[in-house]
Amino acid sequence: MAGTGRRQNILLITCDQWRGDSLSAVGHPVVKTPNSDALAREGVLFSRHYAGAAPCSPARACLYTGLYQMNNRVCRNGTPLDDRHDNVARAARRVGYDPTLFGYTDVSPDPRNRAPGDPFLRSYEGVLPGFTTRQLLPEHQKGWLSWLTQRGIDSSAGFPDVHRPSNADAPEVSNAVPIYSKDETPAAFLTGEFLRWLGEQDKGEPWFAHVSFLSPHPPFIVPEPFNTMYDPAEGPAYNKAPSFEAEKASHPFLAYHLEHHQGKSSFIPGAPGKVGDWSEDEFRKIRALYYGMISEVDSQLGRIWQGIRDKGDWGDTIVILTSDHAEMMGDHHMLGKGGWFDGSYHIPLIVKAPGHERAAGSTVDRFTAAVDIMPTLLELVGGAAQPHLDGQSLKPFLDGDEPADWRDAAHWEYDFRSVANGTTEAYFGTGSRQLNLSVIRTEAVKYVHFGGGLPPLLYDLANDPGETRNLANDPEWLAVRLEFAERLLAWRARHLDQSLALSELAENGPTGHFLRLP
How many other CB atoms are there within 10 angstroms of residue 268's CB atom? Predict the structure, then answer.
């Protein structure tokens, strides 16, 4: 159904740590996501969509600003976002929206604009400037915990222990249920808050909501019926080295990351030891829970779709469903995110835009990126995407067109500095500026370049899609390695910060484009 002609509503949904291959709409052999699939039938599914960085704060900075990490410079959770950067919420305000947040944005505020003792400077879980906060739900989840208490559930254990099995005798890895039901998950709570707010909106007055779900981010636990929805024996084979130790030995970064950033307790509260200690059977049980968490959040999407329909707004609402980054989920003996593997960066994207139905139900297999979201939204609502942005509007694909100058590769970055405690710097014996990597990934080849002298990586994706054989030192592949190193250098040169470089002071004053400060 096409829109009525009035300015459209905007619903931006992020589901944290959702792998791009884990939707039934893209042909996953196990996962069932009927409500996401229903959205894809009315919109466009982008099957090769990639995050710009990891973990949460850097990934979201790319999504919210339309700038690659090399320009927004949010390197880690806790890196402040420079307040000079524009973002999707500020841009929406300029065209008349009041962007309203349900959940979190994980944006650390610029400390130069605040007093040294400001409590906002004690957490990386700040709110992106420009958003009105209706229901904040950062990692401590206190808003949800107090709601559980009101419902008669003892939530005094707090985060993350509230996500332990209700049965204290349950094995370390099991499908035991938590103390809350399917109607009392954090996603169910946030959905309810959004629907309550939706009912308060005046008919005909366009709204902008950002619903930012934590699921399917760990801890990995989910209530009935989702805890037994998937058989651990089912699912694709893992991409990995023959052993945890062999994976560590394959690259100096992995030796560090697998040893220092893969504690079990980050994924199952209270579990001692390292992720690499789990057997494949345990990994498969965890993956079945992860799939269940995807289906649980998908069920909440169904509530949202129905609520918007009931209000009569569906035909006038742009819906963007995506994630910030993805989840390794056992590939390369890992859980979580980081490094260079596709498992950490390939994320879902579905866009439904009323008035752009010519391509409805189609799948786009061109490379798209998180930085494309901001220019896409601006073009859809009549705003002007500023020319210094790194992203490109996806609107041509929504109209069934094939842009002639579209990118032929995906790029992302990962920075593994640890400014607060310096542990990574001490381990590698170098400064923070050298602890980073950049990726160029085409359909057939992936090249990974490191700062600080760590060895590069090169994968033949046509014959090794699981990224298990590094060909960087293979004499037969040296020409390809050089070609991709040059392509990566050209990409970085093209995308160096353009916020003032596209302007010039001439006799009659500034000419060209320059980014005005907020």
Answer: 24
